[in-house]
Amino acid sequence: MFDIKWIRANAEAFDKALQRRGGAPESANILALDDTRRQTIVALNEAQEKRNASSKLIGQAKAQKDETKAQALMAEVAELKAQVQAGEEEEREQTQALNDLLATLPNILRDDVPDGTDENDNVERSRYGEPTKFSFTPKEHYELGEASGEMDFETASKLAGSRFVVLKGQLARMERALGQFMLDVHTLEHGFTEVIAPLLMRPEALFGTGQLPKFNEDAFETTDGRWLIPTSEVSLTNLVRESIISEEELPLRFTSLSPCFRSEAGSAGRDTRGMLRQHQFNKVEMVAVTTPENSDAEQERMLTCAEAVLKKLKIPFRTMRLCSGDMGSTMARTFDIEAWMPGQDTYREISSVSIAGDWQARRMNARYRTKDGKAEFVHTLNGSGVAVGRALIAVMENYQQEDGSIRVPEVLVPYMGGVETIGGKS
């Protein structure tokens, strides 16, 4: 959502910001709706004032025993009451129309976001490690998993349909180990507070973070009107909804390991093999809530936290600055971390770290009390810390051995009960 006053004062800049995302100018429509709404409010106030004044005159007319005047005034008051009621309904409809338009508009990109059309226009910011080399042709994760019998897509399809997987044995343990390892890193080393929150959320929560109304097809709605979270960004960010936090409490930093549920609408035919694009997957999420002055620095910090996970796992990766055409509409700036996947011979996204500015805060009415007593909107940020399923893929492909076994990364050995190698020929 946006501040109408800001749009009115910066109409040209607002339209240019929308055009950077490939959208049409909207300031004229927004301001026209707001002008009409304002006119209705003025007329309402005038009618209410006139009604109040006439109501007082009724008592005076009756005191003077002027029944004719009193009846005329009562008729006038009744007519004004009807006008007020009709005007209130009109104002509600106009406000709703304005809010409906604002709710569909994307966040304003930061100036340093590169212009571009798609992922081919993203800009590499940094790189860690070199692509893993093998003396044999590396396999993709699903080839390794199916050969070991611990990654079962066929049974998952019988149970739930396509884009699901059943993990068993040591692979299941490794996925669990990755999640626990990431949580420990973020809570013990990076100062995040661990949170376990509901997986089912009211629609207001998804509206607050921007999944609704525009991306309702990407999420799963239950029969009672609640929604399965597509990411725990929804639950963690909404912890501060409809509240005013003291500036001294900021920044707030939350992390959570949770299942995530996505319909993958629009991804037909993409990544149909393996675990890369699933309807259900586990992810460790990071969310930060801070002041506008500190939000840029907080994004850099969160990016470092996500990169630290892959460095500890010794997974080669590159960090990309996303261009305007590849950005999620709810965010103002996004960095993607892409892990090297030897079986695919390419880098694939494993984490995104984004800043929303006050865009989500306005939708949630999340504010903080400044030291001088003003209530201002907070800035929110989120990032994968990282996607557990994709981290499992990266470990499997980068740590595979010629016999199909997988070495366990050193940092995961304690979480695996001392096991150093899994899978391989029986």
What count of helical segments does DSSP give? 12
Q: How far is it from the N-terminal to the C-terminal residue, by CA? A: 58 Å
Shape label: elongated
Strand order of the largest sheet: 1-11-12-13-16-10-9-4
Please tally the β strands and state the result: 18
Strand content: 15-25%
Structural class: alpha+beta
CATH architecture designation of the largest domain: 2-Layer Sandwich
- Biggest beta-sheet profile: 8 strands, mixed
Tally of separate domains: 2
Radius of gyration, CA atoms, in whole angstroms: 28 Å
Describe this structure in words.
This protein is of the alpha+beta class. It folds into two domains: 4-103, Helix Hairpins (Orthogonal Bundle), CATH 1.10.287.40; 119-423, Bira Bifunctional Protein, Domain 2 (BirA Bifunctional Protein, domain 2, 2-Layer Sandwich). The chain has helices at 4-9, 11-20, 27-63, 67-103, 141-148, 153-160, 169-189, 203-209, 233-237, 295-313, 359-364, 388-398, and strands at 123-128, 151-152, 166-167, 193-194, 200-201, 220-221, 227-228, 243-246, 252-261, 280-290, 317-321, 333-341, 346-357, 366-369, 375-377, 379-387, 405-407, 421-423. The strands form five sheets. Strands 1-11-12-13-16-10-9-4 form an eight-stranded mixed β-sheet. Helix 5 (141-148) packs across helix 12 and helix 7 (169-189) crosses helix 12 (388-398). The longest helix is centred in the N-terminal third of the chain and has 37 residues, at 27-63. The mean pLDDT is 93.
